[in-house]
């Protein structure tokens, strides 16, 4: 069934048996399901400087929700060039419905994130208003360095009946092929020209289904990771035989760009500061105050930074530029530092056994006698003691001339990343609530909020607190709102507010019923354990604390004091209490600690039970009545 589209295209004929089979499949399904009938990828490695990739797919679009399956795109760079792009749509009788035309292809060089982006995205959208129909699409492109040989991931968001990868090595180049999931060994043959062929085939690939907070590295479930052991990138010979050789290649790539010219001495003035860490702090503050982050794709496809003299002149750059600039200032101030290549945690993990190019970020690192400082040079909301959640607890490659090495960044603890609310809440006779509170944020919780607030106008800042409080009320009005220490990452972030919640309590006769936990919630939407297939990754460990003093209307009293036994686990702890006070009010307190960031699949059932218990505890309802 999967091969008939090519026959239709080539010979313009109809094969009734195959079409009848396809109709039978559709009619047998209670809800027709789109699927990839056939997917073929051919990678031809001519030499270190020329790799041709050809991709062909035949797809059944059975639902309107899946019409995007007929689309395609490619991002061109200095090293990736589109050679051909073609597509057509057919009905189930083999009649051509629509063919891709030149006017359908869009070339865009505008990037939201970049001030100057030399890359282009070439794309098209090809759909038809009536389903089902068939798609045949092809794309061919040239890669100008084997360094960028793509991985093969045949899994899609719909089932795949058949997928094939063939890699042809026209020269005896060394590659590593790492199989992921249930991929078997390749069939290896040598043709009459002496070219070596590696072929992988898979059938009945299940569709990819995302899961709640799935660990990014687990999302590549089936395929082959391809890496040229030796490569040439714009004249720079490199190797991934080990981490040392890869780090040496990268050092040679950038070494002439990370030292100031003699006439620039911007770091010299800091030498007089006797304490080394204080010296680092002052230089880092200078970087934060005088430069800004702009993503720039220039120079060897974004792998090589601009010269630090240029960054000093323009005062902006991407992660490589700003980290190199920081390093150059440190050197002038008499401090030894290093650049480090990073794969941020939100994109997965570095495989220690696979030296190579799967990095997407750079930071500066300063080893000290009693400490190591990790400097996120694109951030103006972190201190020298902060480590953003995306670069904590991961392996990074410290770049040195001859002995580059992977090192592990530290993980923050739950008590370092706090959100604490202290508030007074006045329940009014019309069941509304006047709330006056102060939120104190530290660690990653402060970093996230600072980054958010520094980019927003005042109205959007107020909406942030409204959205947090609206879960306990259908209508929230902010009467006062201030933020303290927004520009001081060495201090906690303080948010002071006064709010009115119009529909806070539900009324039943002479009773008011409400959930006292109106700010912090336990968020968890994980699948049931029997359905879970991937590990879970929380953004970071953290602690949320509430302390809210409730005042009630005259004549009202608490009918159900609540003190639930703490839920305690190796994953964390949560507890909640609501108790009458001597002066007639009541005090609500809650604490939720999440200690574990990464949850193995084998631990998930216990984690699920812990989180569900905490959700129930925090949502306990209170009754007051006259």
In short:
The chain is α+β, with helices and mostly antiparallel strands and 626 residues long.
General description of the model:
The protein is α+β, with helices and mostly antiparallel strands. It folds into three domains: 4-233, Immunoglobulin-like (Sandwich), CATH 2.60.40; 236-407, C8orf32 fold; 414-625. The chain is 17% helix and 37% strand. It is built from nine helices and 39 strands. Strands 25, 26, 27, 28, 32, 34, 35, 36 and 37 form a nine-stranded mixed sheet that branches. Strands 5-4-9-2-1-10-13-12 form an eight-stranded mixed sheet, with no helix packed on it. A hairpin with a 2-residue loop joins strand 29 (506-508) and strand 30 (511-514). It is globular and about 95 Å long. The termini are far apart. The relative contact order is 0.08. The model is unreliable at 1-18 and 111-116 (pLDDT under 50).
What is this structure's SSE topology?
Blueprint: H1 4-11, H2 16-28, E1 35-47, E2 50-61, E3 72-76, E4 80-90, E5 96-99, E6 105-108, E7 114-117, E8 120-124, E9 133-143, E10 160-169, E11 175-180, E12 187-190, E13 196-205, E14 223-228, E15 230-233, E16 236-239, H3 243-254, H4 276-290, E17 292-293, E18 295-297, H5 308-314, E19 316-317, H6 319-332, E20 338-342, E21 361-368, E22 371-375, E23 395-398, E24 405-408, E25 418-427, E26 433-441, H7 443-453, H8 458-469, E27 476-484, E28 493-501, E29 506-508, E30 511-514, E31 536-537, E32 542-551, E33 557-558, E34 562-563, E35 567-569, E36 572-580, E37 586-594, E38 598-599, H9 604-618, E39 622-625
Parallel strand pairs: 1-10, 7-18, 17-19, 25-32
Antiparallel strand pairs: 1-2, 2-9, 3-8, 4-5, 4-9, 6-8, 10-13, 11-14, 12-13, 15-16, 20-21, 20-23, 21-22, 23-24, 25-26, 26-28, 27-28, 29-30, 30-39, 31-38, 32-37, 33-39, 34-36, 35-36, 36-37
Helix pairs in contact: 4-6, 5-6
């Amino acid at each position: 069934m999967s091969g008939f589209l090519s026959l239709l295209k080539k010979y313009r004929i109809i094969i009734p048996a195959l079409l009848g089979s396809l109709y039978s499949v559709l009619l047998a399904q209670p809800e027709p399901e789109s699927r990839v009938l056939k997917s073929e990828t051919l990678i031809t490695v001519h030499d270190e400087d020329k790799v041709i990739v050809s991709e062909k797919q035949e797809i059944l679009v059975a639902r309107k929700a899946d019409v995007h399956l007929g689309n395609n795109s490619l991002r061109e760079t200095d090293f990736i060039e589109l050679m051909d792009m073609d597509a057509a749509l057919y009905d189930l009788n083999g009649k051509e419905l629509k063919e891709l035309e030149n006017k359908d292809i869009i070339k865009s060089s505008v990037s939201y994130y970049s001030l100057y982006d030399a890359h282009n995205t070439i794309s098209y959208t090809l759909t038809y208003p009536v389903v089902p129909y068939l798609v045949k699409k092809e794309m061919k492109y040239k890669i100008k360095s084997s360094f960028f040989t793509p991985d093969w991931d045949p899994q899609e968001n719909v089932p795949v009946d058949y997928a094939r990868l063939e890699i042809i090595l026209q020269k005896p180049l060394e590659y590593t092929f790492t199989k992921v999931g249930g991929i078997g060994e390749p069939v290896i043959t040598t043709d009459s020209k002496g070219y070596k062929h590696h072929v992988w085939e898979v059938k009945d690939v299940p569709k990819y289904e995302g899961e709640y907070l799935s660990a990014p590295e687990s999302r590549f479930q089936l395929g082959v990771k391809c890496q040229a052991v030796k490569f040439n990138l714009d004249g720079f010979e490199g190797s991934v035989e080990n981490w040392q050789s890869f780090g040496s290649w990268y050092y040679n790539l950038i070494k002439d760009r990370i030292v100031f010219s003699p006439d620039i001495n911007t770091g010299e003035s800091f030498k007089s500061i006797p304490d080394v860490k204080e010296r680092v702090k002052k230089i880092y503050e200078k970087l934060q105050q005088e430069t800004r982050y702009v993503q720039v794709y220039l120079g060897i496809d974004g792998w090589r930074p601009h010269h630090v003299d240029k960054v000093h002149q323009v005062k902006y750059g991407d992660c490589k530029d700003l980290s190199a600039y920081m390093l150059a200032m440190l050197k002038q101030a008499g401090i030894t530092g290093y650049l480090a290549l990073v794969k941020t945690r939100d994109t997965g993990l570095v495989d220690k056994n696979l030296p190579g190019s799967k990095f997407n970020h750079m930071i500066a690192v300063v080893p000290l006698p009693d400490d190591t400082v990790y400097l996120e040079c694109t951030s103006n909301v972190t201190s020298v003691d902060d480590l953003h959640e995306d670069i904590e607890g991961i392996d990074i490659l410290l770049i040195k001339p001859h002995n580059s090495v992977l090192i592990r960044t530290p993980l923050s603890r739950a008590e370092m990343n706090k959100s604490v609310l202290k508030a007074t809440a006045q329940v009014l006779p019309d069941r509304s609530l006047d709330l006056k509170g102060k939120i104190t944020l530290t660690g990653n919780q402060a970093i996230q909020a600072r980054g958010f607030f520094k980019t927003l106008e005042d109205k959007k800042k107020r909406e942030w607190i409204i959205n947090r409080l609206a879960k306990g009320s259908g209508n929230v009005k902010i009467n006062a709102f201030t933020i303290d220490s927004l520009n001081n990452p060495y201090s906690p972030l303080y948010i002071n507010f006064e709010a009115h919640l119009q529909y806070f309590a539900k009324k039943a006769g002479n009773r008011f019923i409400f959930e006292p936990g109106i700010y912090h919630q336990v968020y968890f939407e994980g699948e049931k354990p029997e359905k879970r297939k991937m590990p879970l990754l929380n953004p970071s460990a953290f602690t949320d604390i509430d302390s809210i003093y409730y005042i009630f209307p005259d004549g009202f009293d608490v009918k159900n004091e609540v003190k639930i036994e703490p839920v305690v686990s190796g994953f964390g702890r949560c507890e909640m209490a609501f108790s009458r006070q001597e002066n007639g009010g009541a005090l609500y307190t809650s604490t939720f600690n999440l200690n574990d960031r990464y949850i193995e699949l084998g631990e998930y059932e216990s984690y699920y039970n812990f989180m569900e218990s905490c959700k129930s505890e925090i949502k306990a309802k209170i009754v007051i009545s006259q």
